[in-house]
Amino acid sequence: MFAVFKKLSWFFAHYWKRYTFAIIALILASAVGLIPPKLVGYIIDHIQFETLTVQILTAVITGYIVLLIVHYIISFLWDYTLFGGAVILERWMRSKLMDHFLSMSPTFFGKYRTGDLMARSTNDLKAISLTAGFGVLTLVDSSIFMLMIIAVMGLTISWPLTFAALLPLPIMAVMMNFYGSAIHRRFTKAQDAFGEMNNSVLESIRGVRAIRAFVQEEQEKTRFENMTKDVYDKNMEVAQIDALFEPTMKILVGLSYTIGIGYGAMLVFENRLTLGDLVTFNVYLGMLIWPMFAVGELINILQRGNASLDRVNQTLSYPPDVRDVRELKQVEAVKELQFHNVSFAYPNTAEKALKAVSFKVRVGDTIGAVGKTGAGKTTLFKLLLRQYPDVQGKIVISGEEIESLPLKQLREWIGYVPQDQMMFSKSIRENIQFGKEAATDEEIFRALELAYFASDILQLPEGLDTQVGESGITLSGGQKQRVALARAFIKNPEILILDDSLSAVDGKTEAAIIAHLKEERKNKTTFIAAHRLSAVTHADHIIVLEDGEIAEEGTHEQLMGEKGWYYKQYVQQQMGD
Question: What sections of the protein cross the membrane (predicted)?
Fold first, then answer.
C-alpha cells in the first residue's frame, strides 16, 4: 500500500526540509488540539463538585482563546507548506512528461495514443499530487494523531476503557485492505477507459469536416455514447468501493461510541471515573472519528496515486529510440552530404521502405526526389532528420556519420516543411516566429514574399495578427502551406527540406516560389519532394524512387533523354496543363 511513497522518495528526499517542517507543524497542531477537551472536563468536574470560580472560568476561557490562535497559525503553516509541495510535485511531473514527449520519436507516438497521453498528463498527475498532499496528511492523522489521542485517552483517563472502545479497529484494518486492493484494480481500468475516450474526442474534433461530409454524425454520437458509458461503468465500479468506506467507518465508529459510553457510564457509577473524564473521553472519541476515516481515505488515495504513478512511470520509462551517442563529433558547417547504401524498414514491418539508396550532395545543390506515392521520398527525409533508429548503411555529413553528430545541432541545420503542415492556434506572426523567435516584422514580410504570401496577408482582417484557429482551420490549404514555407524560410537553414510542400498551390504560385528559392538559396542545400515535376526541373540532381530504390537519377535534361518514368510522367503532366 505504501509503495507509492517509496516510488516518490526522490521527490521527498529533494524537499525533505519542506515536508519535515510540514509534518512537525501538523503534529504540533494536533497536540495543541488535544488540550481543549481536557479543559472542558476540568470545568465539568468543578461544576459537579461546586468548586468553579470566576477566576478559574476566566483563566480557562483565556487559555482556550490562546490555544485557538496558536492552533490557527500552526495549521496555516503546515497546510501551506504541505499542499505547496504537492503543487510542486505536479509541476515537476508535468515538466518531466513534456520533456519526455519532446524527446520521443514517431515510434513512441505510434504506441501511445494522444488521448491516453493527455489523460496521463492531467487526471493521473492530479491523483499523484493528491497523494503528496492529502495523502501525507491522512498518513500522519491516521497514525501519529490517532496514537496521540489513544495515548492521552489511556494515560489521562483509563486504559481499560480505551482498549474496549478500540476493539473495532482490527476489523477496520481488514476491511480497508480489501477495499484498497479493489480500488487499485478498478481505478487503473477507469483511467485507461478515460484515455481511450479522450483520444476518441480528439479524433472526432480533428475529423469533424470528414464526419459531416460523409454524414456520420449519428454513428459518431452512438460510438461516443458507448465510450462514455464504458467510462461511466468503470468509474461507477470505483464509486461502489468508495461508497463502502463511509458506511463501514460509521458502523465501526458507532460501535466504538456504544462501547465507550456504555462501559464509561458503568465506570462513573463505580466511581472509578469522574463525569468530567467521561465527557473528555467521548470528546476524544469524537476526535478519533477523523483519524479512523483517514485510514480509509489514506488507502483510497494511495491506491489511486499508485495506479496513476504506475501509468505515468510506464510512459517515462520508455527510452528514446534516437539519442546522442557518448562520443559526439563536432562539424562546423555542412559541406557535403552523402547517402551510402541506406536501407530502412519501419518498426514492426518486414518490407523495407528504402533499399540500398546512394547519392551525394554538394553544398548549394538542389536535390529533387520524385516517384509514385509510397516510393520512399518522405522516408528519405525522416532518416535525414534522424527520426528513426536502426538504419542500415551510412548517412554522412561533412565526413561524419549523422549518428555521431549532436541531435540538436543536426536539427538546427535543417528546415523542414512536411506534407501535413502544423499550424499552432496562434497568430500568423507567432506561427512564423516559430522558425526564428526574435524575427522582426521586416524579416517576416521578407519570408512571406519568398513564400508568395505577402499580398495575401494584406487581405486578411488583422494582417500578421490574424488568428489561424485550431490547426490553422481559418486558412486554406494553400495558405497553410505558404505560411509553413515562410516559417522555414525565415530560419534560413543550411538544409531546407520541402516534402511535397507546394501541392496545394497553383502553377503560377509554385513557379514564383521556385524562382525565389533559386535566388535565395544559391549557396545552401535544398531537398524538394514533389508529385508535380515542374517543381524539380531546376534541381541540380533528381532521383526517381520506385519501391524504395533509385530507379533513375540525373538532371532534368538527362532524365528526359532517358525516356523512362520521369519522361513519361513529365510529358503527361505538361499535356494535362
Answer: 21-44, 56-89, 127-151, 157-179, 251-269, 281-302
